[in-house]
Model the fold of this input.
Amino acid sequence: MGFSPLRLDRVHTVERAADLPRREWDALARPSDVFLTTRWLDVVENTAGVPMAYLWTERDGVPVAALATASATASVPWTLGRPDVVLRNSAEAGLPGAAGFLAGLGGDATTALMPSVVAGGRHVGNTRILYGARATDEDLEALVTAAEARARDLGAASVAFLYLDETDRRLAAVLGARGYAGCVSGRHSSLSVPADGFDGYLASLPRKRRVSVAAERRRLREAGVDVRLESLDGADLPRFAALEAELLRKYGIEWRADQSLPQLRQVRDRFGDDAFAVVARDGGEIRGFGLILRHGGHWYARQTGYDYAYQRRTGLPLYFELLYYRLVEEAAAAGVPVIHYGLGSEDTKRSRGCTATDQYCLLLRL
Done:
């Protein structure tokens, strides 16, 4: 597949999100693309610690397709944005095609794939090219070609779209024609919020689950736990960062609170009222939080964390209250149709009403 330069303008490239045609770039983003909007790119750029590049094609002077990239080395701390780690994790989880693809590398995945240009955004879930109705397959291929050229210039070993959703068949076809291959890298979960709120949500669950949800909420009320939505202005972000680090360490990810704090501050400053927290307090102390982003009418459960000493002592179901029960109530009241929960813990998310789609790690070795 080739493209004719007579049919589209040249690929534009900048290395700072501040230099993007921001309004036009954001106009290409769907409600499910918050992590490809310019304000999230600002957050990533200021906290990722790696070179970024932003590419787009135009027609009649207006962007029609856009691609965010990051240059990842084997030393970056955000391991779920590294193709070698994603492949190993996918193989260990038994995801379709992962073990065979990993074996086909013929050696150590880090040696074979790193450094890498991570394309489609440096985030976990729904990495893609933004494109509008006027974009052609040639626009998509032009951007992929430009990303590959940048990777070669940087001496990268691969280009990777780490989490391409199964519904993005158009981009998958373009990548497949260029020799990209890979495997399932996860399942992305979301929840459709019933218009009649929590009652409708509860009615959608199996009878046994409805009984357990009612019991969980009753225990929280009896314990006097206060759960509410709060602005990030004046929020105790150091406490949030410490609780998130606790959660990540629980799941075997080495992480410090001072690694989370800069991003939390960036989110507060860049998103304004479109970022807020759902917070659980007991005795005035924050025992758990969920960071929620708002984009295109949808909500995103972005980060969370818990006081696990408190959890062990009380056994209270803070996670479900914060990120499901209270959040569904508030989302329905605000007219929000969808809450996005991202990758991981699919069985748990399904048990609380989520559905999921496959995500694919598609790689080109250079």
